[in-house]
Amino acid sequence: MAHFDVAIIGLGPAGSALARQLAGKMRVIALDKKRQCGSEGFTKPCGGLLAPDAQRAFIRDGITLPVKVIANPQIFSVKTVDVAAGLTRNYPRSYININRHAFDLWMKSLIPDVVTVHHDTLCRKVWREDDEWHISFQADGLEQHITARYLVGADGANSLVRRHLYPEHQIRKYLAIQQWFAEAHAVPFYACIFDNTVTDCYSWSISKDGYFIFGGAYPMKDGQARFEALKAKMTDFAFHFGEPVKSEKCTVLFPSRWGDFVCGKENAFLIGEAAGFISASSLEGISYALDSAELLSQVLQGQREDANRAYTRSTFSLRLKLLGKIIKARILTQPRLRKAIMRSRISDIRVRD
């Protein structure tokens, strides 16, 4: 039974960044559901926009994006739609349009060979025994078992590690649904859609590589019906759909209070969405995945005696920033406040006919 300094569960942006930053400094193993390459196997349903905070994380690491992960077109505004009020506004945004699955595979490819990586792998169970973490997983058709001093949950909304550490912890969740259509709009666009009769969260659309993606976050119970109801309404706002090419679903977390952010304990840590580090106002998580991975990397390399306390303290500013996103989300999802803001036309860019 092999022993490691750090075991990372999940190689999305958070896990991949941490594995790369710890490579050669600690003995690291990483387990991931995705295959090593190609479009087969698990893919993360995601609109695929790289926000400015995520761009800054790459600048700090001296990393540039390869052309293979960048999608077309690049759009510099978001069309915001209030369905009930019948209002549409255009606000400037500096996102980079990316192919999310290609981006995730590229992030994994940056991990040096000194890190032991198991692809297409299912983590079965984690437990603590004799001051070590034990991890049971299935890889290459075999049941395997390793131990580690530190355990890191980078395994997203349905984190196995978070459920083990905090079995009573409850955080608001939505069913994220999106469909891909052949692009039928003369001018491609991004959109953010609010309709409180459908969801108290929000919906979105993105033009990407000849496709039009339409999706949103809906209550878990009847999300599909609500999604279809909103699609029917959007024809009044010049949204064109046709027959879907593919449909995707996943669970997405929606932090709504300070206590929704959980950092870990007993030499186990949570980063990215597993920790609740996702924006309540946009559901953007890549930025906070990269930032939390960087903070944890610094803590683990510092060999602190109480690493959990150090990590919790180091993420305070990040959690405070996300608390601001919760406040922003409460404002944006209040129909009267949202309507007043949009009617004011503050920051709105008027588009010529």
Automatic annotation (TrEMBL):
<dbReference type="Pfam" id="PF01494">
    <property type="entry name" value="FAD_binding_3"/>
</dbReference>
<protein>
    <recommendedName>
        <fullName>Protein CbrA</fullName>
    </recommendedName>
</protein>
<comment type="similarity">
    <text>Belongs to the CbrA family.</text>
</comment>
<dbReference type="InterPro" id="IPR002938">
    <property type="entry name" value="FAD-bd"/>
</dbReference>
<feature type="domain" description="FAD-binding">
    <location>
        <begin position="134"/>
        <end position="166"/>
    </location>
</feature>
<dbReference type="InterPro" id="IPR036188">
    <property type="entry name" value="FAD/NAD-bd_sf"/>
</dbReference>
<dbReference type="InterPro" id="IPR050407">
    <property type="entry name" value="Geranylgeranyl_reductase"/>
</dbReference>
